[in-house]
Amino acid sequence: FQKVSTSMAASETLNVFFLSPPSSKDTKNYSNPSTISTRKPEIDSEFDFERKFTVPLAENFKKRQWKHNFRGIPWIFDTFERENAHFLRIFCNKLNKSRLWGCLAHVSVFSRSSRFICTEKNVDFDSETHFETILPLSKENIEISVQISIKAVIGLSLSPFFDFSKPKSDIFDAFLLVEGKKVYVGKQYLATYSPFLYDLLDGTPEFQLPNVKFVDFIEFLHFLYPTDTEMTSSNVERLLNLAHRFEVEILKSKCEKFLISLDSMDAGWKLILAESFSLSRLQNHVLQNLTTEKDVQKVSKSAHYRQMTDTTKTSLLNRVLEIMEEKEDSDDDDVEDSMPDESDDVIYVE
Protein backbone atom coordinates (compact mmCIF):
# COMPACT_ATOMS: atom_id res chain seq x y z
CA PHE A 1 0.00 0.00 0.00
CA GLN A 2 1.10 3.54 -0.74
CA LYS A 3 -0.25 6.23 1.55
CA VAL A 4 -1.04 9.71 0.24
CA SER A 5 -3.12 12.70 1.38
CA THR A 6 -5.95 13.98 -0.75
CA SER A 7 -7.34 17.47 -0.16
CA MET A 8 -10.92 17.54 1.11
CA ALA A 9 -13.27 20.33 2.25
CA ALA A 10 -11.34 23.37 3.45
CA SER A 11 -8.19 22.10 5.19
CA GLU A 12 -9.60 18.63 5.88
CA THR A 13 -7.48 15.81 4.52
CA LEU A 14 -8.32 12.19 3.89
CA ASN A 15 -5.68 9.51 4.06
CA VAL A 16 -6.10 7.28 1.03
CA PHE A 17 -4.30 3.96 0.63
CA PHE A 18 -3.79 3.00 -2.99
CA LEU A 19 -4.58 -0.66 -3.44
CA SER A 20 -2.61 -3.06 -5.58
CA PRO A 21 -4.20 -3.56 -9.02
CA PRO A 22 -7.61 -5.23 -8.64
CA SER A 23 -7.51 -8.93 -9.34
CA SER A 24 -10.11 -11.56 -10.00
CA LYS A 25 -11.17 -13.34 -6.82
CA ASP A 26 -13.31 -16.38 -6.14
CA THR A 27 -16.62 -15.11 -4.74
CA LYS A 28 -18.39 -18.46 -4.73
CA ASN A 29 -17.28 -19.46 -1.23
CA TYR A 30 -19.90 -18.43 1.28
CA SER A 31 -18.86 -16.62 4.43
CA ASN A 32 -19.10 -18.54 7.67
CA PRO A 33 -22.57 -17.86 9.08
CA SER A 34 -21.58 -18.77 12.62
CA THR A 35 -21.42 -16.08 15.26
CA ILE A 36 -18.04 -14.39 15.42
CA SER A 37 -18.65 -11.72 18.02
CA THR A 38 -21.35 -10.30 20.26
CA ARG A 39 -19.99 -6.75 20.04
CA LYS A 40 -21.51 -4.44 17.46
CA PRO A 41 -18.83 -2.30 15.74
CA GLU A 42 -18.92 1.41 16.50
CA ILE A 43 -19.87 3.72 13.64
CA ASP A 44 -17.46 6.41 12.46
CA SER A 45 -19.76 8.54 10.30
CA GLU A 46 -16.83 9.79 8.22
CA PHE A 47 -15.97 6.39 6.76
CA ASP A 48 -18.71 4.02 7.98
CA PHE A 49 -22.38 3.54 7.24
CA GLU A 50 -25.11 1.14 8.30
CA ARG A 51 -28.19 -0.25 6.53
CA LYS A 52 -31.00 -2.22 8.15
CA PHE A 53 -33.05 -4.79 6.26
CA THR A 54 -36.13 -6.87 6.97
CA VAL A 55 -36.65 -9.75 4.54
CA PRO A 56 -40.01 -11.58 4.77
CA LEU A 57 -39.70 -15.34 4.41
CA ALA A 58 -42.67 -16.74 2.52
CA GLU A 59 -43.38 -19.42 -0.03
CA ASN A 60 -43.21 -16.80 -2.76
CA PHE A 61 -39.86 -15.40 -1.61
CA LYS A 62 -38.52 -13.04 -4.26
CA LYS A 63 -35.17 -11.45 -4.82
CA ARG A 64 -35.01 -7.99 -3.25
CA GLN A 65 -32.61 -5.14 -3.90
CA TRP A 66 -31.67 -1.93 -2.09
CA LYS A 67 -29.37 0.90 -3.16
CA HIS A 68 -27.34 3.31 -1.06
CA ASN A 69 -24.92 6.10 -1.97
CA PHE A 70 -22.17 6.86 0.55
CA ARG A 71 -19.84 9.79 -0.11
CA GLY A 72 -20.28 9.42 -3.86
CA ILE A 73 -19.75 5.65 -3.99
CA PRO A 74 -22.84 3.61 -4.98
CA TRP A 75 -23.61 0.37 -3.13
CA ILE A 76 -26.15 -2.32 -3.98
CA PHE A 77 -27.53 -4.88 -1.53
CA ASP A 78 -29.67 -7.80 -2.63
CA THR A 79 -31.08 -10.94 -1.08
CA PHE A 80 -31.85 -14.11 -2.99
CA GLU A 81 -32.61 -17.78 -2.48
CA ARG A 82 -30.50 -20.70 -3.65
CA GLU A 83 -30.74 -24.39 -2.73
CA ASN A 84 -33.23 -23.68 0.10
CA ALA A 85 -30.92 -21.11 1.68
CA HIS A 86 -31.11 -17.31 1.76
CA PHE A 87 -28.16 -15.12 0.88
CA LEU A 88 -27.08 -11.49 1.06
CA ARG A 89 -24.92 -10.05 -1.69
CA ILE A 90 -23.19 -6.66 -1.65
CA PHE A 91 -21.78 -4.83 -4.68
CA CYS A 92 -19.65 -1.69 -4.66
CA ASN A 93 -19.70 0.61 -7.71
CA LYS A 94 -21.30 -2.23 -9.68
CA LEU A 95 -21.88 -0.37 -12.95
CA ASN A 96 -18.23 0.68 -13.28
CA LYS A 97 -16.54 -2.17 -15.17
CA SER A 98 -13.10 -0.52 -15.17
CA ARG A 99 -10.24 -2.43 -13.56
CA LEU A 100 -8.62 0.82 -12.40
CA TRP A 101 -10.64 1.23 -9.22
CA GLY A 102 -10.84 -0.65 -5.93
CA CYS A 103 -12.34 -0.25 -2.48
CA LEU A 104 -11.10 -2.06 0.61
CA ALA A 105 -13.90 -2.24 3.19
CA HIS A 106 -14.68 -4.10 6.38
CA VAL A 107 -18.15 -5.68 6.19
CA SER A 108 -20.10 -6.72 9.29
CA VAL A 109 -23.47 -8.48 9.11
CA PHE A 110 -25.33 -9.00 12.35
CA SER A 111 -28.74 -10.13 13.51
CA ARG A 112 -30.95 -7.31 14.76
CA SER A 113 -32.83 -9.67 17.07
CA SER A 114 -29.87 -11.36 18.78
CA ARG A 115 -27.37 -8.50 18.20
CA PHE A 116 -24.77 -11.17 17.36
CA ILE A 117 -22.42 -10.56 14.47
CA CYS A 118 -23.04 -13.28 11.90
CA THR A 119 -20.21 -12.40 9.54
CA GLU A 120 -17.39 -9.88 9.47
CA LYS A 121 -14.48 -9.70 7.06
CA ASN A 122 -12.36 -7.37 4.95
CA VAL A 123 -13.37 -7.34 1.29
CA ASP A 124 -11.36 -5.99 -1.66
CA PHE A 125 -14.26 -4.76 -3.78
CA ASP A 126 -13.54 -4.18 -7.47
CA SER A 127 -15.26 -4.65 -10.83
CA GLU A 128 -15.11 -8.44 -10.44
CA THR A 129 -15.41 -8.92 -6.68
CA HIS A 130 -18.44 -8.64 -4.44
CA PHE A 131 -19.40 -9.86 -0.97
CA GLU A 132 -21.73 -12.78 -0.38
CA THR A 133 -22.90 -14.53 2.78
CA ILE A 134 -25.59 -16.95 3.84
CA LEU A 135 -28.23 -15.42 6.11
CA PRO A 136 -29.33 -16.82 9.48
CA LEU A 137 -32.50 -18.87 9.39
CA SER A 138 -35.77 -17.52 10.75
CA LYS A 139 -39.37 -18.68 10.83
CA GLU A 140 -41.08 -15.53 9.56
CA ASN A 141 -38.48 -13.01 8.40
CA ILE A 142 -34.82 -12.11 8.45
CA GLU A 143 -33.85 -8.93 10.27
CA ILE A 144 -30.25 -7.91 9.75
CA SER A 145 -28.05 -4.85 9.87
CA VAL A 146 -25.04 -4.35 7.65
CA GLN A 147 -22.16 -2.08 8.62
CA ILE A 148 -19.53 -1.13 6.07
CA SER A 149 -16.32 0.65 7.00
CA ILE A 150 -14.25 2.01 4.11
CA LYS A 151 -10.54 1.42 4.73
CA ALA A 152 -8.96 2.43 1.41
CA VAL A 153 -9.88 3.44 -2.14
CA ILE A 154 -8.16 3.72 -5.51
CA GLY A 155 -9.53 5.26 -8.69
CA LEU A 156 -12.52 6.71 -6.82
CA SER A 157 -13.16 10.09 -5.24
CA LEU A 158 -14.87 10.29 -1.87
CA SER A 159 -17.24 13.23 -1.59
CA PRO A 160 -16.42 15.78 1.13
CA PHE A 161 -17.57 14.93 4.64
CA PHE A 162 -18.91 17.40 7.20
CA ASP A 163 -19.77 16.60 10.81
CA PHE A 164 -21.83 19.55 12.01
CA SER A 165 -22.02 18.18 15.54
CA LYS A 166 -18.30 18.72 16.19
CA PRO A 167 -16.29 21.98 16.24
CA LYS A 168 -13.74 22.53 13.48
CA SER A 169 -12.13 25.94 13.75
CA ASP A 170 -10.82 26.05 10.18
CA ILE A 171 -14.34 25.51 8.74
CA PHE A 172 -16.87 26.55 11.41
CA ASP A 173 -16.85 29.86 13.27
CA ALA A 174 -20.27 29.81 14.95
CA PHE A 175 -22.91 27.42 16.17
CA LEU A 176 -26.67 27.25 16.43
CA LEU A 177 -28.59 25.51 19.19
CA VAL A 178 -31.15 23.07 17.84
CA GLU A 179 -33.14 21.05 20.36
CA GLY A 180 -30.47 21.96 22.89
CA LYS A 181 -27.67 20.52 20.75
CA LYS A 182 -24.87 22.51 19.15
CA VAL A 183 -24.78 22.61 15.35
CA TYR A 184 -21.51 24.08 14.07
CA VAL A 185 -21.61 26.22 10.92
CA GLY A 186 -19.56 28.66 8.90
CA LYS A 187 -21.23 32.06 9.17
CA GLN A 188 -19.77 33.52 5.98
CA TYR A 189 -20.55 30.33 4.07
CA LEU A 190 -24.18 30.35 5.23
CA ALA A 191 -24.46 34.01 4.24
CA THR A 192 -23.91 32.95 0.62
CA TYR A 193 -27.13 30.95 0.69
CA SER A 194 -29.21 32.30 3.57
CA PRO A 195 -29.21 35.99 4.53
CA PHE A 196 -31.78 35.04 7.16
CA LEU A 197 -29.39 32.72 9.01
CA TYR A 198 -26.54 35.19 8.64
CA ASP A 199 -28.62 37.91 10.31
CA LEU A 200 -29.40 35.54 13.18
CA LEU A 201 -25.71 34.92 13.77
CA ASP A 202 -24.59 38.50 13.17
CA GLY A 203 -23.08 39.82 16.37
CA THR A 204 -23.44 36.60 18.34
CA PRO A 205 -21.61 33.28 17.97
CA GLU A 206 -24.68 31.22 18.87
CA PHE A 207 -28.45 31.31 18.47
CA GLN A 208 -31.32 29.05 19.53
CA LEU A 209 -33.39 27.82 16.57
CA PRO A 210 -36.94 27.04 17.71
CA ASN A 211 -39.43 24.68 16.08
CA VAL A 212 -36.96 22.61 14.08
CA LYS A 213 -35.68 19.09 14.66
CA PHE A 214 -31.97 18.49 15.05
CA VAL A 215 -31.82 15.67 12.46
CA ASP A 216 -33.83 17.71 9.96
CA PHE A 217 -31.56 20.73 10.28
CA ILE A 218 -28.43 18.57 9.86
CA GLU A 219 -29.95 17.12 6.69
CA PHE A 220 -30.76 20.66 5.52
CA LEU A 221 -27.13 21.74 6.01
CA HIS A 222 -25.90 18.79 3.95
CA PHE A 223 -27.74 20.29 0.98
CA LEU A 224 -26.00 23.65 1.46
CA TYR A 225 -22.52 22.18 1.76
CA PRO A 226 -20.88 20.19 -1.08
CA THR A 227 -21.93 16.66 -0.11
CA ASP A 228 -23.49 13.78 -2.01
CA THR A 229 -26.75 13.80 -0.03
CA GLU A 230 -29.62 12.78 -2.29
CA MET A 231 -33.04 14.38 -2.53
CA THR A 232 -35.86 11.85 -2.35
CA SER A 233 -39.64 11.77 -2.28
CA SER A 234 -39.47 11.29 1.49
CA ASN A 235 -37.30 14.34 2.30
CA VAL A 236 -38.17 16.88 -0.41
CA GLU A 237 -41.10 18.43 1.50
CA ARG A 238 -39.05 18.66 4.67
CA LEU A 239 -36.25 20.40 2.80
CA LEU A 240 -38.69 22.69 1.03
CA ASN A 241 -40.13 23.83 4.36
CA LEU A 242 -36.70 24.63 5.77
CA ALA A 243 -35.51 26.30 2.56
CA HIS A 244 -38.60 28.52 2.62
CA ARG A 245 -38.27 29.30 6.32
CA PHE A 246 -34.58 30.20 6.11
CA GLU A 247 -34.86 31.92 2.69
CA VAL A 248 -32.53 29.61 0.79
CA GLU A 249 -33.74 30.24 -2.75
CA ILE A 250 -31.23 27.95 -4.45
CA LEU A 251 -32.49 24.97 -2.42
CA LYS A 252 -36.10 25.94 -3.07
CA SER A 253 -35.30 25.86 -6.78
CA LYS A 254 -33.72 22.40 -6.46
CA CYS A 255 -36.77 21.14 -4.60
CA GLU A 256 -39.05 22.57 -7.28
CA LYS A 257 -37.09 20.86 -10.07
CA PHE A 258 -37.21 17.58 -8.17
CA LEU A 259 -40.97 17.84 -7.64
CA ILE A 260 -41.45 18.52 -11.34
CA SER A 261 -39.56 15.33 -12.15
CA LEU A 262 -41.41 13.29 -9.50
CA ASP A 263 -44.14 11.42 -11.36
CA SER A 264 -45.24 9.38 -8.35
CA MET A 265 -46.60 12.35 -6.38
CA ASP A 266 -50.30 13.22 -6.63
CA ALA A 267 -51.00 16.20 -8.89
CA GLY A 268 -53.34 17.76 -6.34
CA TRP A 269 -50.68 17.69 -3.63
CA LYS A 270 -48.15 19.20 -6.01
CA LEU A 271 -50.55 22.11 -6.54
CA ILE A 272 -50.85 22.53 -2.76
CA LEU A 273 -47.06 22.70 -2.44
CA ALA A 274 -46.80 25.06 -5.40
CA GLU A 275 -49.21 27.60 -3.90
CA SER A 276 -47.80 27.22 -0.37
CA PHE A 277 -44.24 28.03 -1.46
CA SER A 278 -44.93 30.17 -4.56
CA LEU A 279 -43.49 27.61 -7.00
CA SER A 280 -44.84 28.93 -10.30
CA ARG A 281 -42.90 26.49 -12.50
CA LEU A 282 -44.27 23.53 -10.57
CA GLN A 283 -47.84 24.81 -10.81
CA ASN A 284 -47.47 25.46 -14.53
CA HIS A 285 -46.02 21.97 -15.05
CA VAL A 286 -48.94 20.31 -13.25
CA LEU A 287 -51.56 22.36 -15.10
CA GLN A 288 -50.01 21.70 -18.51
CA ASN A 289 -49.94 17.98 -17.79
CA LEU A 290 -53.70 17.99 -17.22
CA THR A 291 -54.56 17.37 -20.86
CA THR A 292 -58.19 16.25 -20.62
CA GLU A 293 -61.29 17.36 -18.74
CA LYS A 294 -61.17 14.00 -16.95
CA ASP A 295 -57.68 14.82 -15.65
CA VAL A 296 -58.91 18.08 -14.14
CA GLN A 297 -62.02 16.43 -12.69
CA LYS A 298 -59.82 13.87 -10.95
CA VAL A 299 -57.94 16.67 -9.19
CA SER A 300 -61.13 18.59 -8.33
CA LYS A 301 -62.65 15.48 -6.72
CA SER A 302 -59.57 14.69 -4.63
CA ALA A 303 -59.24 15.48 -0.92
CA HIS A 304 -56.51 18.01 -1.74
CA TYR A 305 -58.97 20.21 -3.66
CA ARG A 306 -60.58 21.42 -0.43
CA GLN A 307 -57.22 22.71 0.79
CA MET A 308 -56.56 24.75 -2.34
CA THR A 309 -56.95 28.51 -2.42
CA ASP A 310 -59.42 30.20 -4.75
CA THR A 311 -56.48 31.25 -6.91
CA THR A 312 -55.46 27.65 -7.62
CA LYS A 313 -59.09 26.58 -8.13
CA THR A 314 -59.47 29.38 -10.67
CA SER A 315 -56.33 28.14 -12.44
CA LEU A 316 -57.91 24.67 -12.69
CA LEU A 317 -61.12 26.18 -14.09
CA ASN A 318 -59.15 28.15 -16.66
CA ARG A 319 -57.32 24.97 -17.61
CA VAL A 320 -60.67 23.25 -18.28
CA LEU A 321 -61.71 26.15 -20.52
CA GLU A 322 -58.39 25.94 -22.39
CA ILE A 323 -58.84 22.21 -22.95
CA MET A 324 -62.39 22.78 -24.26
CA GLU A 325 -61.19 25.52 -26.62
CA GLU A 326 -58.35 23.33 -27.87
CA LYS A 327 -60.83 20.54 -28.49
CA GLU A 328 -63.18 22.87 -30.41
CA ASP A 329 -60.31 24.18 -32.52
CA SER A 330 -59.26 20.61 -33.25
CA ASP A 331 -62.80 19.68 -34.29
CA ASP A 332 -62.99 22.74 -36.58
CA ASP A 333 -59.72 21.74 -38.22
CA ASP A 334 -61.08 18.23 -38.81
CA VAL A 335 -64.19 19.67 -40.47
CA GLU A 336 -62.13 21.92 -42.72
CA ASP A 337 -59.92 19.01 -43.72
CA SER A 338 -62.97 16.95 -44.64
CA MET A 339 -64.54 19.66 -46.87
CA PRO A 340 -63.84 19.44 -50.62
CA ASP A 341 -61.40 21.91 -52.05
CA GLU A 342 -63.47 24.45 -54.04
CA SER A 343 -60.55 25.05 -56.35
CA ASP A 344 -61.14 21.58 -57.79
CA ASP A 345 -64.47 22.76 -59.27
CA VAL A 346 -63.08 25.84 -61.03
CA ILE A 347 -62.91 25.63 -64.83
CA TYR A 348 -60.42 27.91 -66.46
CA VAL A 349 -61.29 29.18 -69.96
CA GLU A 350 -58.69 30.66 -72.18
Automatic annotation (TrEMBL):
<dbReference type="InterPro" id="IPR011333">
    <property type="entry name" value="SKP1/BTB/POZ_sf"/>
</dbReference>
<feature type="region of interest" description="Disordered">
    <location>
        <begin position="326"/>
        <end position="350"/>
    </location>
</feature>
<dbReference type="InterPro" id="IPR000210">
    <property type="entry name" value="BTB/POZ_dom"/>
</dbReference>
<feature type="domain" description="BTB">
    <location>
        <begin position="172"/>
        <end position="233"/>
    </location>
</feature>
<protein>
    <recommendedName>
        <fullName>BTB domain-containing protein</fullName>
    </recommendedName>
</protein>
<dbReference type="Pfam" id="PF00651">
    <property type="entry name" value="BTB"/>
</dbReference>
